[in-house]
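Shipment paperwork, digital attachment
Item: protein structure file
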Amino acid sequence: MSTPSETEATTVVETFLAKMEALDLDGALALLADDIVYQNYPLPADRGIDAVSKTLRGFGKVMTAFRVEMHNIAERDGVVLTERTDILIGPLLYLDIRVNGTFEVRDGKIVLWRDYFDVGESVLKLLAGPVRRLIHRA
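Attachment content:
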């Protein structure tokens, strides 16, 4: 396995997130290795492309739009660190959460994707989501 150049790994991650924003799930999945490990920490990890695909398709059932506001991105030796705000929008959903992500890229594919976020804040925002969505529409 080869370690990508710094710009190559960053480009893979940025392309992956752009495909997620475009709701191009097949395009996003194509950038993940077959043995991908994906974890929204502290929740259990999904292991393998089939498990990750199932999770991401599940998000699509409640979400009609997804945006990423990138605050910072850094890379060393194929490991890309992101500090971002993910915004999930659906008919009764408006969830904007601050996320720190770790992506490991090998041979042009993401082999590890781990996101860290404040679970308590996210639950409160989820519960308030329908009200926040109505206010956001106004």
